[in-house]
Amino acid sequence: MGQYPEATRAREAGxxxxxxxxxxxxxxxxxxxxxxxxxxxxxxxxxxxxxxxxTKIEVTNLDNGKSVIVxxxxxxxxxxDRILDVSPAAARKLGLLGKxxxxxxxxxx
Length: 109
What we know:
By secondary structure, this protein is mainly β. The protein has 1 helix and 6 strands, in the order E-E-E-E-E-H-E. Strand 3 and strand 4 form a beta hairpin.
């Protein structure tokens, strides 16, 4: 499991990160996220280790240029080599489904 900060860190619009991302398995549908919301595989949501819940992030697939806006509503990812997990709906729009992981950029909106 990855290390999580004791507190979240708000970031100004324009803050960016780059790294590997993945997506949630559909088996999590309906389970509670760390924010208390129920996971909805059709919503445009994501898990990040330290950005506050409700933070909007533009995620761009660096291989194909496709991008989406997601809202942080969970903590994760649990894998140390990834910086974000997105919902299956976001993964579909990014061209991530079936690939497992992709290199992406994240920009706080």
